[in-house]
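Example for tutorial group B:
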């Protein structure tokens, strides 16, 4: 099995485990994660990208608002040209529009920002901080574009512990997470390669 096929299999298995969690349990754990906002060590004024949860993902909206209350400047990904994401500023009362894939983002009138910290959705992760996304490559391309501009955001994966897999077959374009926040707390990974 090649690495692409293995990633697909690991993704499906991890998402099946996540989907099997009860909605009430997921909501309670999402609030638990929001209570860990201080552990992320985000100083006031820091630009933090979050994401609008889809399907059985961790609902990070309580965490995003906890970070906003601590002075973080928030943004969400906005899909443009069906292949690229940019990060648009999010504030209370911001106009949200359908981005497809079951997610929402700020209207195009919102300012585009470069995040210093990215809360990254994922399907699966391993003990080294390698991640498997949903397969469309949006975050890989966005991170690559930031790196090309000499911007290196801190990457914090957001997941439930059940999404842990023994080993992610990393490819050249993959970027390791610096941290992962789950219901059991904040994990720190070795520096990205």
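The residue assignment follows.
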């Amino acid at each position: 099995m090649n690495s692409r096929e293995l990633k697909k299999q690991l993704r499906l298995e991890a998402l099946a485990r996540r989907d099997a969690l009860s909605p009430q349990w997921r909501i309670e754990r999402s609030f638990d994660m929001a209570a860990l906002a201080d552990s992320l060590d985000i100083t006031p004024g820091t630009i933090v990208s979050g994401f609008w949860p889809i399907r059985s993902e961790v609902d990070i909206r309580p965490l995003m608002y906890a970070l906003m209350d601590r002075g973080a400047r928030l943004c969400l990904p906005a899909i443009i040209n069906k292949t690229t994401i940019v990060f648009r500023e999010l504030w209370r009362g911001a106009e949200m529009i359908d981005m497809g894939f079951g997610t929402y983002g700020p209207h195009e009138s919102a300012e585009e920002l470069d995040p210093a910290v990215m809360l990254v959705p994922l399907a699966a992760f391993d003990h080294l901080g390698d991640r498997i996304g949903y397969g469309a490559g949006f975050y890989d391309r966005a991170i690559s574009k930031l790196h090309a501009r000499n911007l290196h955001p801190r990457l914090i994966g957001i997941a439930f512990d059940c999404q842990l897999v023994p080993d992610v077959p990393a490819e050249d374009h993959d970027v390791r997470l610096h941290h992962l926040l789950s219901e059991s707390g904040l994990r720190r990974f070795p520096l990205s390669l």
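Residues 53 and 59 are 5 Å apart (CA to CA). Compare this with the pattern of hydrophobic and polar residues in the output above.
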